[in-house]
Design goal:
The protein is mostly helical. The chain is 83% helix and 0% strand.
């Protein structure tokens, strides 16, 4: 997904240490969303459907922004020269991603987490660790790719490919949310 792609690119271009802020934000954002859906936020989202539509537009915009940053990257590894995704961007990306909402709603429903607060808390804590390790592994993988992408030209091609994929994901997200429902 988009969080993993951004983490991969950040690990490559800025190193694992600098990617951890974004990883922590994405982890906290997702687990907070999971918790709040478990205590009833999904009912609010269902009642006010326009909120999810607005989140979809904002999320697609954020993906296009990250894609643009990757597309315009020059490919050098001057770690201070590039914009690094922040903690708050990691949080926002999870909250603006309808697929994250869907995964949280499905998890709460499947495991009946809305029936037991202690079960919900256990699941949220467990998922926090799993999420951090899972997303963080993409940062490590990205930092290790530096050996294979030694030249600025290779990094530029790699970053542009990821940028195109992120923009495609944004368009796909909008299509699925708005046209897919109406056509299918």
């Amino acid at each position: 997904g988009p969080v993993n792609l951004i983490t991969l690119s950040t690990g490559l271009n800025h190193g694992v240490h600098n990617a951890l802020r974004f990883v922590a934000g994405a982890t906290i954002g997702f687990t907070l969303l999971l918790y709040l859906i478990g205590i009833g936020l999904s009912a609010v989202a269902e009642r006010f459907g326009w909120v999810l539509e607005a989140l979809t537009f904002l999320g697609a915009g954020l993906l296009v922004y990250f894609g643009y940053l990757l597309l315009t990257s020059v490919g050098d590894l001057d770690r201070g020269a590039h914009s690094k995704p922040t903690f708050w961007q990691g949080v926002a990306l999870q909250w603006l991603n309808p697929k994250a909402w869907g995964a949280c709603i499905a998890g709460v429903g499947l495991f009946e987490l809305d029936q037991s607060h202690s079960k919900l808390l256990f699941f949220v804590c467990l998922y926090c660790v799993i999420c951090f390790l899972g997303i963080g592994s993409w940062a490590v993988f990205g930092s290790q790719m530096e050996r294979f992408l030694r030249t600025p030209k290779r990094r530029r091609v790699f970053n542009r490919t990821l940028g195109v994929i992120l923009i495609f994901l944004a368009i796909s997200l909008l299509y699925q949310q708005f046209l897919g429902e109406r056509l299918g």
